[in-house]
Amino acid sequence: MITKCLFPVAGYGTRFLPATKAQPKEMLPILTTPLIQYGVEEALAAGMQNIAFVTGRNKRAIEDHFDITYELEDQINGTSKENQLHSIRELIGRCTFSYTRQAHMRGLGDAILTGEMLIGNQPFGVILADDLCVGEPDNVMAQMVRVYEKYRCSVVAVEEVPLGEVDKYGIISGAQLDDEHIQIERMVEKPAPQDAPSNLAVIGRYILTPDIFEILRSTPPGKNGEVQLTDALQTQAAEGEVIGYRFQGRRFDCGSVDGFVEATNFFYARRAETP
Ligand code: UTP
Q1: From the CA of 78, how far away is ligand 1's center (Å)?
Q2: Using an 8 Å Cβ cutoff, are 91 and 37 in contact?
Q3: CATH for the stretch 4-273
Q4: Among 25, 45, 82, 174, which one has the highest count of C-beta atoms within 10 angstroms of its own C-beta?
């Protein structure tokens, strides 16, 4: 059973300035729900009720969101507005939340290593909340748990992206096992299109085995001087220990303005269709 999910949320969210000057980008809402809440709902539905955040300065609103707000609750108790808090109350009731801070913005790999003491020696999920995923009938993390149970190694969610956009992602290549699964052989962080081994990009959903921490500890800074998770995963991939999974569903890159607007329109249309 995978019970823990790590949320690296220390990034500055510079693409959303000035909105993210004094608030975390993970608190930006799609309709009325903050991005981070969609991520935690996905983790819980995949069986991961222990939620671990790697936070940074300016991220206190995330902690407050996953806590009771007594004054507000008191005021709306018994009114028609109360049901708007139903979903967050349920998460607070069913999950545990733990936090640690990444002192320096040294990259996603460093953020994950910072979370080691919250995770311990067990496989765990990782969700980058600015990638908002919609999976049918099961959410993407729940699909990945099934992949982990089959292959018992690290799993990364992948999707095809236009060749012109490969330099925004970790790009993989390897042996196609079937329509959905790839035994990854190569992973390259943000390659130029001419250097990309394919157009299959890793998106913000991972299941990692705990040996990743030891690997990250000895992974030198890579692209942009940051400790890259992709480089550590390449070490696992060289041992045949990483599966790329083409998930069923849709991903919105809510770290970009275009993806954020697309997600908003999608959720708005879906809500309008719901009786
Ligand atoms: P991004 O590359 O999206 O960076 O990080 P960002 O700072 O959040 O956003 P922009 O590009 O400035 O707009 C990918 C994920 O890794 C986390 C971020 O919080 C995000 O979830 N991250 C990145 C960290 O937690 N620590 C880091 O040092 C770097």
Answers
A1: 40
A2: yes
A3: 3.90.550.10
A4: 25
